[in-house]
Write a structure and sequence with these properties.
binds uridine-5'-diphosphate; Rossmann fold; globular; 493 residues; seven-stranded parallel sheet; Glycosyltransferase; alpha/beta; six-stranded parallel sheet; EC 2.4.1.-
C-alpha cells in the first residue's frame, strides 16, 4: 500500500491573524497525529516581510506550505471596500488555483480544512471526495452566534436587537449585548449580514467544526452546541474544541536576540505592560495621544507597538501588517503623532516599537506583567498560555464579545468604563489607572492568579489524553478511516 498516513490540506485566508492559527493547527496534526499537512496560503503580498519570515520559520519545516498566486482584486472591488469584502473576494478568486493545485497533487489529501472565509472551497473538497472541516480561529461563543444566525428572524433582530438594543439571546449561551454585537448584526438587511448567514449555513454542511478553545474554558457554550434542544438542532456539524492553538516561542519568526528582548531582560519580574493591537489595529490621533499620556503618567514600564494613527479605519493595515514597507524606518519612525518629548521623558521605562514586535517572545518573557490588547483571539490565547493578565481594548470583528468574556466571565482582564470607539476616547487618567491596577496593584495579583489557573487548564487540555488532544484525535481517526476506505475501494476496483 502506497500511502501510510493521511494527508490533510488546510486553507488559510489573508491576514497574519488568520494564517498563524492555521499553521499551528497543521503543526499539531503532524506532531500529535502523524498526519501530513499542506497549508494553502492566500495573501495579497506573499513577499511581505513578516509573512515570509513566518512561513520560512524552521518550526514549520514539518509542513508543506503552498503560497497560492497573489490575487489582484483592484479591478473587482474599490479601495474603499470593507476588509471583510476584500478578504471574501480574494478567497473567491483563489478557488481555481486551489482546485488545480489539489488536482495536480500526486497524493490527493484526505481532508480539506477551511477557515471562516474559506467555506466556498468546501465545494472543491466535495469534487475530490475529500472530508471537509471548518476551523474557526475564534471561540465557541462566536461559533454559537454564527451558527444560530440563520435561525433568527431578521425582522425581530432588526426591531429588538438593533432598534431597541436588547441583548441577542442564544440558546444555552451568554446573550450578546448590543454594545458588543458583531458589525454584521447592525444591518440585518445588508450584504455583510447575508455573507455572515451564508457562513452560518455552510458550517452545518461541514463534517466537523474545529474551534480554537478548550472544554474548561467554555464548557457552557460547548454543551449548548452539543445539545439538540439548544444549538445542535441548527448546528448540524459536530464541534471539536482543539485549542489553545498559540504560537510557541520557537515558532515565532525571531531567532536569537532582539532589541526588545534584550531590553526586557533588564527589567524586573512581571513589571512591564505590553501594548499591542494585533496585526493591523490602529487608533485615532486623539486616542494615540491619550494612550501615550496614560502610559507616561502611570510611571510603569511599557513596550508599545506603535502604528501611525488613522482617523477613519481601525484595521487599515490588516492585510499589509508587517510588510517590509511599513516596517522600515521611513515608514514608521516619524513619531510626530506622539506627545512632544514623550520618547525622551519615557526612555528609562518604556520602549516604542514601530509596527510589529515579536509577540510570542514578549508574552513569554518573565518581565511582562500585563497586556493591553485589542482582544484578537490569537493574542488572547497567547496571553492566557503565558499567564499574562489583560487590559482589554476591543476594536473590530468579535473582539467586543471576547473582551466581555475575558472580563466578566473568565475574570482575567480589566477594561475601561466605556468601550473605546471613534466616538468615545478613553482618557489618559483612566488608562493610567488601568495600567497601574494591572501591573502594580493588588487587583493585578488576583487576576494574575486566575489567568495562571487558566494557563494550567490549557496545558491539561493539550497533553496526551487531554480534552483538546482527544478532540483532534477524533478528526485524525476520521481521516484515517476515510483514507483506508479510499484505498480499499481503489484496490477492489
Ligand atoms: N502579532 C505579532 N506581532 C505584532 C502584532 C501581532 O507577532 O506586533 C501576531 C500576534 O502574536 C498574533 C497575531 O499577530 O498571533 C494577531 O492575531 P490576533 O487574532 O490577535 O489579531 P488580528 O491581527 O487577527 O486582529
Amino acid at each position: 500500500m502506497e500511502i501510510t498516513k493521511p494527508r490533510v490540506a488546510l486553507l488559510a485566508s489573508p491576514g497574519m491573524g488568520h494564517l498563524i492559527p492555521v499553521l499551528e493547527l497543521g503543526k499539531r496534526l503532524v506532531i500529535q497525529n502523524n498526519h501530513h499537512a499542506t497549508i494553502f496560503v492566500v495573501a495579497n503580498d506573499t513577499s511581505s516581510e513578516q509573512l515570509s519570515k513566518l512561513v520560512n520559520s524552521p518550526d514549520y519545516d514539518i509542513l508543506d506550505i503552498v503560497l497560492l498566486p497573489c490575487i489582484d482584486i483592484s479591478g473587482i472591488v474599490g479601495t474603499d471596500a470593507s476588509l471583510v469584502t476584500q478578504i471574501a473576494v480574494m478567497m473567491h478568486e483563489s478557488i481555481p488555483a486551489l482546485r488545480s493545485t489539489i488536482s495536480a497533487m500526486k497524493y490527493r489529501p484526505t481532508a480539506l480544512i477551511v477557515d471562516l472565509f474559506g467555506t466556498e472551497a468546501m465545494a472543491v473538497a466535495d469534487e475530490f471526495e475529500m472530508l471537509k472541516y471548518m476551523f474557526i480561529a475564534s471561540n465557541a461563543w462566536f461559533v454559537a452566534v454564527t451558527i444560530y444566525a440563520p435561525a433568527l428572524d431578521k425582522k425581530v433582530l432588526q426591531e429588538e436587537h438593533v432598534n431597541q438594543k436588547k441583548p441577542l439571546k442564544i440558546p444555552g449561551c451568554s446573550a450578546v449585548r448590543f454594545e458588543d454585537t458583531l458589525e454584521a448584526f447592525l444591518d440585518p438587511y445588508g450584504p455583510m449580514y447575508d455573507g455572515f448567514l451564508q457562513v452560518g449555513m455552510d458550517m452545518s454542511k461541514a463534517d466537523g467544526i474545529l474551534v480554537n478553545t478548550w472544554e474548561d474554558l467554555e464548557s457552557k457554550t460547548l454543551a449548548a452546541l452539543r445539545d439538540f434542544n439548544m444549538l445542535r438542532r441548527v448546528a448540524k456539524a459536530p464541534v471539536y474544541p482543539v485549542g489553545p492553538l498559540a504560537r510557541s516561542v520557537a515558532s515565532s519568526p525571531v531567532s536569537g536576540s532582539h532589541v526588545v528582548l534584550d531590553w526586557l531582560d533588564k527589567q524586573p519580574h512581571e513589571s512591564v505592560i505590553y501594548v499591542s493591537f494585533g496585526s493591523g489595529g490602529t487608533l485615532s490621533s486623539k486616542q494615540t495621544m491619550e494612550l501615550a499620556w496614560g502610559l507616561e503618567q502611570s510611571k510603569q514600564r511599557f513596550i508599545w507597538v506603535v502604528r501611525p494613527p488613522l482617523d477613519h479605519d481601525v484595521f487599515d493595515s490588516y492585510l499589509t501588517a508587517g510588510s517590509g514597507a511599513l516596517n522600515t524606518a521611513e515608514g514608521a519612525l516619524d513619531y510626530h503623532y506622539l506627545p512632544e518629548g514623550f520618547l525622551i521623558r519615557t526612555r528609562d521605562v518604556g520602549l516604542v516599537v514601530p509596527m510589529w514586535a515579536p509577540q510570542p517572545e514578549i508574552l513569554a518573557h518573565p518581565s511582562v506583567g500585563g497586556f493591553l490588547t485589542h482582544c484578537g483571539w490569537n493574542s488572547t490565547m497567547e496571553s492566557i498560555v503565558n499567564g499574562v493578565p489583560m487590559i482589554v481594548w476591543p476594536l473590530y470583528a468579535e473582539q467586543k464579545m471576547n473582551a466581555t468574556m475575558l472580563t466578566e466571565e473568565l475574570g482575567v482582564a480589566i477594561r475601561s468604563k466605556e468601550v473605546p470607539s471613534e466616538k468615545s476616547v478613553v482618557g489618559r487618567g483612566e488608562i493610567e489607572m488601568m495600567v497601574w491596577r494591572i501591573v502594580a496593584e493588588k487587583q493585578g495579583h488576583a487576576i494574575r492568579n486566575r489567568v495562571k489557573e487558566l494557563k494550567h487548564s490549557a496545558q491539561k487540555a493539550l497533553i496526551n489524553g487531554g480534552s483538546s488532544y482527544n478532540s483532534l484525535s477524533k478528526i485524525a481517526h476520521e481521516c484515517e478511516n476515510s483514507l483506508q476506505f479510499t484505498q480499499e475501494k481503489a484496490e477492489g476496483a
